[in-house]
Structures are given as structure tokens and as C-alpha cells.
Amino acid sequence: MSYCSSRFQTIRRRTSEVMIGSVGVGDAHPIRVQSMTTSDTQDVEATVRQSIALAEVGCEIVRITAPNHAAARALKDIRARLNADGFSQLPLVADIHFLPAAAMEAVEHVEKIRVNPGNYADKKKFATREYSDADYERELQRLHDAFSPLVKRCRELGRAMRIGTNHGSLSDRIMNRYGDTPLGMVESALEFLRIAESHDYRQIVLSMKASNPKVMIQAYRLLVERMAAENMHYPLHLGVTEAGDGEDGRIKSAIGIGSLLFDGLGDTIRVSLTEDSVYEIPVAQALARKAMARWGEAELADAQRGPVAEAIDPYHFTRRETASVSLGGTCAIGGEEPPRVLVRVPTLSAVAELAGTLTRNQLKDTPAEGIIVPVRSPEDLQSLRSLPVSAPAAFLVLDLDPAISPDQEEPLLSQSPHPLMLLRTFSARDGDALAAWGGLVKRGGAPHVLGLAATGTDLAILAPHLGSIGDERLVVTLAGAPQPPLHTIGAYRSLAAALASTGSRAPLWIRNTPATALDGDRSFLSRLLDASILTGSLLCDGLGDLVSIETEPDLGRAVKLSYNVLQGAGARISKTEFVACPSCGRTLFDLQSTTQRIREKTGHLKGVKIAIMGCIVNGPGEMADAHFGYVGGAPGKINLYVGKTCVQYNIPQAEADERLIALIREHGKWVDPEPQPVA
Ligand code: SF4
């Protein structure tokens, strides 16, 4: 893997140093946390106020949009006011789309310029045309002429620059040659990078943002691989764009940013939320802390290969092929089935008590499909008889204490009114026991789950035993925490590699437990981020057939969170997907309340993707693959889109929600929400 030093432990990628004013990014600097103001830039007072509020909660770099020349000029006053108020060390970044003139003005006043290579000096026409090599060269020369003045001025003034590619706003030139692919995103940035280097200018940070974490992860990996091949070592700014708000926004950001940070990539991060910007900072800080805590750990004996060498393509998504394990009836795990959701209960008797919690109306579309039950003694097994016939899930996973011998399992199977899976855990010392157990599994009976102790050595030693068990009745997971510096993501990757090396296609169960926490922080936010990073990064690599989040005290919430992480990783869709921009100085309506209102009205449309974007300048370009778009067209006016086509212009905002619903209905994607029971 040339994109990172290790996929099994966090070894920070070496980069050059970029100075944004007095704040260093990359090299030996910590991960810098940044955000963006949402006020009208020309409202100097409001923008200064927001910048200070961000700095006071720990934001280290503040970005401000400069949509036109007047806004770029206002940056001078904003900089002066911040200096006067004691914030001279807070670096400002001007966000530029389309207008080189705005960039040339802004560079005089702020420490860094962000350009979008998809639209700098380019008008996007969504035109399909064949570019001959000569046409393409002419385009690049035009770009060179348009971009060079800014590069030269940045070099003269000692300013930094971000070449910030967005998946949703690639130029027609790139789209026609590479499509909206991670490769297109990378090429888009490299075109600009080469122009900058031709002027011997290297104070550059790069980003590859997308609203789809899978695309974003692949694009960053590919960028690093391509840069390494050209001996380029620029720092990375990480972010998932248009992530939305609330839990979903945090989950998507944690999946995309967290996966890359744990691979050692990323030098500055922005968590984009459709909320007040100050709420982005604690999320970004927690993500940065989790990754930085792992820097500097002693290296694994073979960090690049890990405990078991992988053979995967990290630049293209392919779901790992697994056998389908049948649990009787229509329920199966692995194969073509979506990842299943499990929940852990504290005792066997709690299964009955939980029926209400787990089947209440809100969880109708997101049921717990399996329940993990600890079985501590042979006596516990007797209570299986007393389970209600209508358990709140399709199957039970009995987590068997080692004190229960395999002989005692047999009577269980006939006593349970429900399909069972039996979980046993082995470590390296248990080689013989594992072999004997494998023989028992092969003989038939209920499907079994093999829990492997997660230390690196155990995986390497136990791997040879896996192939002999067969995979029609076997699911595999990890137990406990891996020994540092191996991290849990790396341990699961090793486990998948160990299965592949023995020809086993047994489904893989991703368990989030207190032992797999990525650091010592057990707060609500931290638990959410941990579950998103571990589960999401594995799902984005095509790994995972069962998921359990066993760190949430509220079991209903544990189930919901599992489904939300699956949706964030694009692995299983259980509700409407919202793409909402974080808003900025261009925003034409209140994005937060509008997003919430539209979510309330359309949140039940499973599989429908709705974009809510603040302006038509960037909105349509950045809606990615949304089915419908609600985009600010003018003050008080909304444009509605089907895909990337605007179908209704300048609708009064008061009518826009209903017109959007009518549009969804017209395109056959509307269903009426189910009536809620009266409390
Ligand atoms: S789409 Fe949203 S964040 Fe992007 S420029 Fe427009 S208003 Fe700003």
C-alpha cells in the first residue's frame, strides 16, 4: 500500500510544512482544527464576531467566503478588526469559487487562499464533449494563464494555498475525461499543483472532499499514492462535505475523516455540519485527539504487512465475498444480504423485557435482527425454555462462557424456540481447543460464531485453523482489544486477510465494545465517533456482514445508531438521505431550520436522496448524486431540481416545501408516512 505506512497501526504520513500565518500545518505540527463563518462577509461586524467565537472554542484556522470582489475587500477590515481585538495570530482563509479577481484582492489581506480547481476561472456548463489531446492542452494553457498570477502573488506575500477539490464540482474538462471519479478528483488537483510548482511555489495543502465518505476516502488515498509517485509530500486538509446535521453529519464526518486519520493521513480537518460552526469544533477536536494519541507508538514488527498481509484494492470499493449462513426460515447472514444489526442485552431474562423497547414503532424500519445474550452458566441455559415465542428479533447469539462445554450445547438447540448462533472465544493458547471445536462445527447443528482474541500474534497463529472449519455455519469476529500499536481497525483487517489466506468465506461481524474504544473518552460524542470510525472504515473497505454497537446503555439507541452508521457508510439504506451544505456567506435562507423542516416532512422516504443547498452558485454543482434538490435561487426564492436539472425556478420560499413534495410524488418516489400511534 503506497498510500500509507501501515493499515494496522497509525503511523503519521510525513509531509512538508505549510505555514498559514504563524500556524504550521503538516510536518511535526498537531492536526489543526478549522471551520468557516456563515455570515455575509461584507457584514464585517458579524463575521468578526463569528471568527472570535470560533477561536474561543479552539478553532485554529478560520475560513471566510469571498464570493465577489467587494467581499474580498471586506477581508481587509475583518483582518484589521481581528488584529485590533487581539486575534492577530488567528489565520484567515479566503474561500474562492470562480473569480480570480476576488482571489487577487483577498490574497492581499488573509493568510491563505482556497481555490476550487473545479471552477477557478471556469464556468461549469455540464457540457458533454470530446476533448482531443490538443483541446485539452489548450485548456490547460488557459488555466495556466489564469491561475499563475495568484500563485506568484501568494509566493511574493508568503501566503499559503489550499487546492480544494470537491467531488460534486469537477470541471467539464475533468468530467469528460475522467468522470466524477476519485481519479478525476485527483487529476483535477494535480493540474493546479503542477502549475504552482512550475513557479516554484509549494506552500500548498490539498483536499479531496465528497459527501460520500467512500468516495472521499478513496480520493485521498489515491491522491497520496499519486503524490508519493511524484515525490510530492503536501499536507492534507480532510473533510466530508455537505455531511448534514445532527448525528448523521457527525457519523459521516467520523467515517471519512476518522478512517483516514487512523491510516496516518491528514494534517488539518474540518467537520462540516449544517449547524452553527462552533458545534463543529468539539467533534473535530475529538477526532484529532483520537488519532494523535496513537502517533509515536512503537512500530509493529512489520507495520506495512501487519499481523497478516492483506490483498485488497484500497482505491476501489468491492464488498468482500462471503458465504451465506442460513439461520433457518428467511433469515441469513452474509452473501448478498445487507449487513445485519445485533444488539447486546445484559441477561437472558432481559430478552423478554426488551420486546417493547426493540419493537416500538420508531424501530419498525430499523429492527434489531439478532440479540446477543451472555450465557454464564449451564443453569442460564435452562432459561432458554422460558423465552417468549415471539422474541423481538429473528435470532439469538448466545455468548457462551468457557465453563460451558461443547457437550452442553447440544440440548440447547432443541430447547430454544428461536434460531440460535453460538459464540465461543479462543486465543492463541487454545490452538487444540479451536481445532476440536472446528470439528464440532463441521458436524452440523446451529451456526457458530468464532470470536478470536484480537492480539496480533493470536491472529497469525490461529489463522491456519480457520480454513479447516468451512464456512456454511461459521461467522467470525474479534474478542477484546488488540495489543497496541495494532489498532482495532487493523485487527479486523488482519482477520479478514487471515480468512482470505485460508480460503474461508465466513461472514465477518464488527463488534463495538468498551474494549474496542479508540481512546479513554467514554462520553456520548466519543462513543458515537468510535462506533462510526471502526464500523464505517471497515464497511467502506467492503468488510462487515453483522454489526453490533455494545457501548450504548439505551438499547433502542444502540440499534438506531447501528443503522445510522450503516447508512453513513452507504452499506444499508433505511431512511431518507439528506445532503445539506454547511452554509456560508452566500446562503440565501436559514439552512438549519429548513433542513429540519424538510427532514420532518420527508424523512420516511427510504432510499430517496434530497439535497438542501444554500445557493445556486455552488449548490447544484455540489449536490453530488441527490435525486432532488432544494436550492436557494435568490433572497426568499427557491429553485427545485431533479438530479442536476433545475425544473422550477424562483418559487416563493413559503410554497417550496409543498412543491418539493409534489415533485417527489410526480417522480413516483413519495409514500405517505405511517400514522403515529397516539401516546
Ligand atoms: S452551497 Fe452552501 S456552503 Fe456552498 S457556497 Fe452555496 S451557500 Fe455556501
What this model shows, in words?
By secondary structure, this protein is an alpha/beta fold. It is 37% helix and 18% strand. The chain is built from 20 helices and 25 strands. An eight-stranded parallel beta sheet has the order 8-7-6-5-4-3-10-9. α8 (246-262) links the parallel β9 and β10. α4 packs across α6. The model has no long low-confidence stretch (mean pLDDT 90). The structure holds iron/sulfur cluster. Iron/sulfur cluster (SF4) binds next to loops.
Largest sheet descriptor:
8 strands, parallel
Low-confidence stretches: none
Helix content: 25-40%
Radius of gyration: 26 Å
The amount of beta strand, in percent, is 15-25%
Class from secondary-structure proportions: alpha/beta
Number of helices: 20
Question: How many β strands by DSSP?
Answer: 25
User: Outline, from the CA principal axes?
Assistant: globular
Mean pLDDT, nearest integer? 90
- Biggest sheet strand order reads 8-7-6-5-4-3-10-9
Summed up:
The chain has 679 residues and is of the alpha/beta class. The longest helix has 25 residues, at 133-157. Residues 581-584, 586-587, 613-615, 617-619, 622 line the site of iron/sulfur cluster.
Chart the SSEs and their pairings:
Blueprint: E1 17-20, E2 23-26, E3 32-36, H1 44-56, E4 61-65, H2 69-84, E5 92-96, H3 100-106, E6 112-115, H4 133-157, E7 160-166, H5 172-178, H6 182-198, E8 204-209, H7 213-229, E9 237-238, H8 246-262, E10 268-269, H9 280-292, E11 324-326, E12 332-334, E13 340-344, H10 350-353, H11 355-359, E14 370-375, H12 378-382, E15 395-400, H13 406-415, E16 420-426, H14 431-443, E17 448-453, H15 456-466, E18 474-479, H16 488-501, E19 508-512, H17 524-540, E20 546-549, H18 555-568, E21 577-580, H19 591-602, E22 609-613, E23 628-634, E24 637-642, E25 645-652, H20 653-666
Parallel strand pairs: 3-4, 3-10, 4-5, 5-6, 6-7, 7-8, 9-10, 13-14, 13-20, 14-15, 15-16, 16-17, 17-18, 18-19, 19-20, 21-22, 22-23
Antiparallel strand pairs: 1-2, 11-12, 23-24, 24-25
